[in-house]
Amino acid sequence: MTQDFLPINGTDHIEFYVGNAKQASLYYQHCLGFELIAYAGPETGLKDRCSYVLKQDKIRFVLTTSLQPDSIISDHVKKHGDGVKVLALWVDDATKSFHETTSRGAQPVDEPRKIKDEFGEITMASIQTYGETIHTFVERKNYKGVFMPGFVSVKSNVQVNPIGLKYIDHCVGNVELGQMNRWVNFYETVMGFKLLITFDDKDISTEYSALMSKVVSNGNGYIKFPINEPAAGKKKSQIEEYLDFYHSAGVQHIAIATDDIIFTVGELRKRGVEFLRVPDTYYDDVLDRVGHINEDLQALKKLNILIDRDEEGYLLQIFTKPIQDRPTLFFEIIERNGAKSFGKGNFKALFEAIELEQGLRGNL
User: Fold this and answer.
1) Residues 188-208: what's their mean pLDDT?
2) pLDDT score recorded for residue 142
3) What pTM was estimated for this model as a whole?
4) CA–CA separation, 318 vs 105, rounded Å?
């Protein structure tokens, strides 16, 4: 067994650069049940931006907006719309993580730096990944504060009702045609990840379009990154549409785990979150394909939740529509009952649902 040179404890946080973080934070509180826990901005001595930290169970999202027209944040939002800038990884030693990865070819973004306040210190360092996305290594073993130095503890002004979201299951990146293997190689060589699963255009295709995908995972399996690229088809694939509107490679979707998807999705629908829809005929023979499940099929059908099975169990999943006006970033809600896979049996139905939306937008 080779030693893991980049041990990762999990996802530390995901930072989004957005046009209006104050309003976006209300969306995450009201619609997705996140609690506002920390803030940084002019009132805390940060003059050029505002950041809101939202938490639910093990998930931390940071929403950041620029206060200046000329800044890397404003440039990011102008080019990409609201999108993910930082996939932050929780590590025991950020300095070692930085040197291990840069020595293997990672492009450095921020050298290791310590930040301190009365609650202790955090060490951070960052490297480049696909598009303008970065990985930040966060070492917080000597820190007891709410998030990190520079942030103050705040509470939501609205009644927040959590919806059972537990942790980040996986994050999917869309990359340009011909770039998938390059980035899979990056994760294998630079970060010591292993190739978990490969899907080709025969696995993920419809009559009109196709994509290819490979899933990489770190040593303990806490971090899983599927990487997608477009494949040849008669019409434009969802990956090409994403690239057209995001204007570079980037994070396509974030999959969030729940232990009770019927409750979680029921709440999301009540609060106005929109989902992709597969036809009701999907449910006519789904149990012939997946076998016995513990949930009531009619409840799943009513909420349009999809089902798939692998050798180790089954999973339930559903995908939101894009959460901003550009057809880019969306969320997946997933409940795993033993299954370790990603819902291959649902790909065709999902693709057709996405193509329906693309057609309405005139982008197919």
Assistant:
1) 79
2) 96
3) 0.95
4) 37
